[in-house]
Amino acid sequence: MPNYAPWILLHLFLFPFVAAQMPGFISLDCGGVNSYTDDTGLQWSPDDKFLFGQRANISAPASTNRQYATVRYFPADSRKYCYTLNVRTRTRYLVRATFLYGNFDNSNVYPKFDLSLGPTPWSTIVVSDAYTPEIVELVLLASQPTLSVCVSNASTGMPFISTLELRQFNGSVYYTQSETRFLLSLAARINFGAESNDSIRYPDDPFDRIWQSDSIKRANYLVDVAPGTEKISTTSPIYVGFDEMPPQKVMKTAVVGQNGTLTYRLDLEGFPANAWAFSYLAEIEDLPPDETRKFKLFIPGRPEVSKPTIDVQENAGGKNRMYEPGFWNISLPFVFSFGLRRTNDSSRGPILNALEIYKYLEINLGSLDAITMASFASNYPQAVWAQEGGDPCLPASWTWVQCSADPQPRVVSIMLSGKGITGNIPSELTKLPSLVELCQVLLIFYRDVIFITSEETSMDM
Ligand SMILES: *[C@@H]1O[C@H](CO)[C@@H](O)[C@H](O)[C@H]1NC(C)=O
Ligand SMILES: *[C@@H]1O[C@H](CO)[C@@H](O)[C@H](O)[C@H]1NC(C)=O
Ligand SMILES: *[C@@H]1O[C@H](CO)[C@@H](O)[C@H](O)[C@H]1NC(C)=O
Ligand SMILES: *[C@@H]1O[C@H](CO)[C@@H](O)[C@H](O)[C@H]1NC(C)=O
Ligand SMILES: *[C@@H]1O[C@H](CO)[C@@H](O)[C@H](O)[C@H]1NC(C)=O
Ligand SMILES: *[C@@H]1O[C@H](CO)[C@@H](O)[C@H](O)[C@H]1NC(C)=O
Ligand SMILES: *[C@@H]1O[C@H](CO)[C@@H](O)[C@H](O)[C@H]1NC(C)=O
Questions:
Q1: Ligand 3 atom at minimum distance from 241 CA
Q2: pTM score > 0.85 for this model?
Q3: Which of 93, 168, 170, 244 to mutate to test the pocket of ligand 3 (most atoms within 8 A of CB)?
Q4: Which of 133, 195, 375, 401 is deepest in the core (most CB within 10 A)?
Q5: Which range (73-82, 391-400, 406-415) has the least confidence?
Q6: Which domains does the chain have, with CATH numbers?
Q7: What are phi and psi of 148, to 5 degrees?
């Protein structure tokens, strides 16, 4: 496989990625039937070769986004349903899943279910409005050639999904020292001073991050705004080509605290938690030589964050250049308040162009038998039961497997009755040290001799 070509692996079906877009972009329109290019130039593919679940159309208030017109939904049972995507190892990706309920099942019961990345719990999807999409994003370093996104554990309604999107980063964008142990789960990505309610994304952001406008008013989100907060903008280009490379369009607008302070309060979903939190600043006003803009960050109860004085123009090495101060690892509360305050020797108030906050999610290493089981399943590329994907044990085990309750579970039982397996025992199964039971048409291991039987048996290792 050429290493530049992103491929999507939906079980046994390989879809070549349609040409002429950013490398590493996959945009799946779940429940869709056709491929198309949307207004922004993103190329969407249907998930019509996916083996599980059913398609449904959303009726009523026509969404402007075609990808929200359909969903794929799954039974509310005890198993998991996984999409498996091919990725380049040692490369960072943004994984985005969206969920627009739209009363697809005509029951008006808002679903609630879990989402996981392989064995790692990602999010609990709670639909709170039928026609507002729930959007979740992760930033991660791909350590394996595939990654799986799974839904499971419905507590209300049926699990469903509207889109699954994969965006590849380049260089060291979002590098962290702990990236082999933690995923970054998006909590806030805000474009301050936005000129409209619209989010900024591809093609303004070549990585298709979604930068939310600060004009959108929501309960407990960007409230307690200080008096004297004004929007400013520039038409000059901004130098952004390093660190997280925020889009220029986001950096060309900002808020300034004309009365000396900027303050905000916002709820951070899933917090308190440890966070990766960075601000994106650039001086976009013409300051006369005798004027300065110097300020400090304030977080209630956290005097240590106020130590450094920020002078954007000086820190960035000039006007219209980005400066990205922030915290690699800061513990933040659910109700997060912060302020930027002019220092006493500064003539101008603070400036803020953009902000991103991610929660660190600890990677679950999954079953110790995951590789062995994946290898075993790969012997049966035609069989639906062998295509369940994800980890064999977590967050729910494959339907024909039982696992121990250990933090890194072992496979203890395999039920292959009626799966149509004949002939030799797949060699992988001899590598499962905790396997105590194999219910199958064949298999007794006795010393080196294999007896074929049609009874349920126990395996003595
Ligand atoms: C969804 O709508 C399309 C076109 O209107 C129709 O062809 C298709 O059968 C519908 N699918 C379902 C699952 O209702
Ligand atoms: C399933 O969801 C319920 C309710 O949201 C939660 O309490 C429970 O811990 C979840 N189970 C698993 C295995 O994650
Ligand atoms: C990363 O991607 C950006 C946006 O497409 C591009 O401008 C830049 O040259 C790339 N950098 C590297 C190191 O590939
Ligand atoms: C922007 O969104 C707010 C609510 O968040 C709404 O009150 C306002 O009318 C919207 N403005 C435009 C121009 O759509
Ligand atoms: C800003 O400060 C000035 C002078 O202190 C004051 O007159 C004005 O009312 C303040 N504006 C706001 C919006 O608080
Ligand atoms: C962040 O800091 C806390 C406390 O010092 C530590 O337990 C945690 O592992 C750190 N997280 C990361 C991602 O480095
Ligand atoms: C400005 O000066 C006042 C009193 O002199 C002091 O209390 C305050 O902390 C100073 N503010 C900043 C941001 O340095």
A1: 7
A2: yes
A3: 170
A4: 401
A5: 406-415
A6: 15-169 (2.60.120.430), 184-362 (2.60.120.430), 396-460 (no CATH)
A7: -120, 135
